[in-house]
Amino acid sequence: MSDAPHGVLVIDKPPGMTSHDVVSRVRRAFRTRAVGHAGTLDPMATGVLVLALGEATKLVPWLTADDKSYEATLRLGTATDSLDADGAITETTAVPELTLADIQHAADAFVGPHAQRAPAVSAIKVDGVRLHARARRGEAVEPPLRDVVLHEVEVLDYRAPDVAFRLRSGKGFYVRSFGRDLASRLGTLGHLTSLRRTASGRFHLGAAVTLEGLADAKLLSLPDAATRLLPAATLTEGAAEAARCGRRIHGVEGDEVAALHDGQLVAVLRRDPNEPSVHRVVRGFAPV
């Protein structure tokens, strides 16, 4: 197993590619099938796409749970079927007279937890079939409402009909849906003309590599990646062996931790709610 690649890679995704396209490129570059990604980016979108290779694929649930930050441009007055510039125009309408302050006030109404209707063209499954597949077949399916959180939003510029903004959101938030809903609150229609993810949790654009730079890319190690996501706990040799066998662990602080021993990631441990002094293995990691 030591010859196989294990770790996390941050890609600056280019436009025009799906997240799966990027995964395919990384699989070929690193000669492994064990590649997963944390948080899909639409083909039009660019920016931070966090990939996990080898044993790091076991960290994907924690990678996807992180907040995400975006910069985007919303064009008012025109709606598309995909809610972005890749879609077909479905309707146009007038844009009212607006100021930057008007738009910021409308955007602020979405801050906090709220229900958001997903785009009709998305990877969400309804009755086991992804919505984008249903849309391609011409089926009329109402996307589900989902509970999401918008932590903060800042309107950066307004040059009619285009609104530039940035935001930070929780898991499962669709910026395309936010653009649609913001336009509606402003009394018009809208779709995104640009979308760039600038951060996914503690993984930022500054650490991202391009697809052209894959040959020289270095993976973030399992221990380094895990301790960006969770507090670290150092195990004794006996506790590490117990964790590798899936046994209960005593004497660990914290509700959920990345358990390390001798420079290796051993497991993710979670406090047992019924026995607060005990931690149980949520996910174990093989030595690499």
SSE order = EHEEHEEEHEEEHEEHEEHEHEEEE
Biggest β-sheet description: 9 strands, mixed
Mean pLDDT: 93
CATH superfamily of the largest domain: Pseudouridine synthase
Q: Rg from C-alpha positions?
A: 21 Å
Beta-strand residue percentage: 35-45%
Tally of individual helices: 7
- CATH 2nd-level architecture of the largest domain: 2-Layer Sandwich
Residue runs with pLDDT of under 50 for 5 or more positions? none
CATH fold description of the largest domain: Pseudouridine synthase
**Count of individual domains:** 3
Give the distance, in angstroms, between the N- and C-terminal Cα atoms: 6 Å
The CATH class of the largest domain turns out to be Alpha Beta
The shape is: elongated
The tally of beta strands, per DSSP, is 18
- The helix-and-strand class reads alpha+beta
Helix-residue proportion: 10-25%
What's the SSE blueprint?
Layout: E1 7-13, H1 19-30, E2 35-38, E3 46-53, H2 60-64, E4 68-76, E5 78-80, E6 89-92, H3 100-108, E7 112-117, E8 125-126, E9 129-130, H4 131-136, E10 145-159, E11 162-169, H5 175-185, E12 190-200, E13 203-204, H6 222-229, E14 232-234, H7 237-244, E15 249-250, E16 256-261, E17 264-272, E18 275-284
Parallel strand pairs: 3-12, 14-16
Antiparallel strand pairs: 1-3, 2-3, 4-11, 4-12, 5-6, 7-10, 8-9, 10-11, 12-13, 15-18, 16-17, 17-18
